Amino acid sequence: MEEHLALLATWLFLVLVYGKMLNGTHHWFSVLAVMGAVAAILPGATFWRIVLAGSLLGAASFFTQTRGPFALMGFAAFLVWDWRLTKGQWRELLTRQMLLLVSFAGTLTLLSSYFIATTGLGTLWYFQITYVRQHLARTGLLGLPGPLSWRSLPLVAPYLCIYVALPIAYSVALYRCWRGPATRNARAVMLLALVGFGLLAEVALNVNWVRVFVVSMPGIVLLVWMVAESRRARRFVVPIAWVALVCFGLTQTWVRHAHAEVLAELPGGRVALRAEAFEKLNWLAERTRPGDFFFQAAWTSFYLPLRLLNPAFLDLLESSALTGPEYVELTIQQLEAKRVRYVLWPPRLDGADPSYGQNQYHLGAFRDYLHEHYHVARRFSDNEEIWERDSPAG
Fold first, then answer.
1. Residue 394 confidence (pLDDT)
2. Sign of CA dihedral 100, 103, 106, 112
3. DSSP label at 260?
């Protein structure tokens, strides 16, 4: 792509996708590794480039276990297409596929070796494969930030646009490359389309707008490429896109700063917060010391700024089958062993997740434990509650 078009694709992703989220989720690192693999193999499917691409896909699976295998399928399909294009021999194709697979598996095994040694391969397989298949591989839901209705359409329309644009971009790109290899940048277009489809297939196992947005980079690049291929569209769409990006980016930045109503010095450093978050963090900061045990039942956002420790094996509790009764019991035992003084509890955990059903709700035992050993010390403006242990922490 020409430099100004590559810059446009970069800013589209930066403003519309990354700027929308602004967090440090593991998904960014896995997608970065996948795109690094794309860059590695794009100049040519040579021995060391294939090894590097497979190794980066192994690193992608280390960050997000399902991402590497699905991207790997896209790379494997690309090697077949590239082999047919160059009319190579069968032995050459098999060698390339084996290099890709072995470098992928070797890197993932090496990175996971500590966990295999300390927990066992069976335990690692259960949490990364079996547990995911049983509880997270659920299709049929769009995973939008709000319910889909005529009233909410203006809110969810930008998300739906991404949902629709990505498969269209990949389908059109594949059609153009399949129709004839003479297409400009055919190898790059085919590789991005196949890898993009693989990433879409992965997030389709459990659709969520965050996961769809994160894997959208190949599609955004292809959309800009398609506009650039049409002189008529390029003349009007590119300037309009830049103007819209500048306006949206400035608005987005202003909103972020305007809503950060409080600057606070916490044990973890200086933070910019909304008032409701400051209310809870400040209350806890006045009553805890760095290194104390504390349990945030629904999320993990308070441990770092307050430098507090999670006493439980689980990072958080879910009001669904994601948190089974055995993990509820384990969490109770670990909180009791550490005699944790404070538990932050949100009202949404009081009932079952509607998408799973009442029979998948297992937090009743934990609520009973709270009522028996704790009392409500503070109810905040967003209805979240701090439960304090009845007896002093030991």
1. 45
2. negative
3. -
- Say if CB 91 and CB 57 are below 8 A apart: no
Q: What is the largest CA-CA distance in the chain?
A: 76
CA nearest to 377, candidates 303, 288, 262: 288
Q: How many Cα atoms occupy the beta-carbon half-sphere of 230 within 13 Å?
A: 10
Q: Give me the pLDDT at residue 183, please.
A: 58
Q: Per residue, what are the HEC states of 78-129? A: HHHHHHHHHCCCHHHHHHHHHHHHHHHHHHHHHHHHHHHHHHCHHHHHHHHH
Whether residue 271 contacts residue 264, with contact meaning beta carbons closer than 8 Å, is answered with yes
- The whole-number pLDDT of residue 182 equals 54
Helix pair 325-338, 364-373: axis angle to 10 deg: 20
CA atoms 348, 354, 356, 359: torsion sign = positive
CB burial of 47-78 (b: ≥16 within 10 Å; e: otherwise) equals eebbbbbbbbbbbbbbbbbbbbebbbbbbbbb
Given strand 295-296, what is the order of strands in its sheet? 295-296, 342-345, 385-389, 374-379
Which residue bears the tokens 């006045």? 286
Using CB atoms within 10 A of its CB, is residue 317 exposed (0-12), middle (13-18) or buried (19+)? buried
Residue in the block written with tokens 């593991």: 26
Q: How far apart are CA 313 and CA 137, in angstroms?
A: 23
Measure the CA–CA gap between 360 and 363, rounded to whole angstroms.
Answer: 9
Residue numbers of the chain with a pLDDT score lower than 50: 393-394
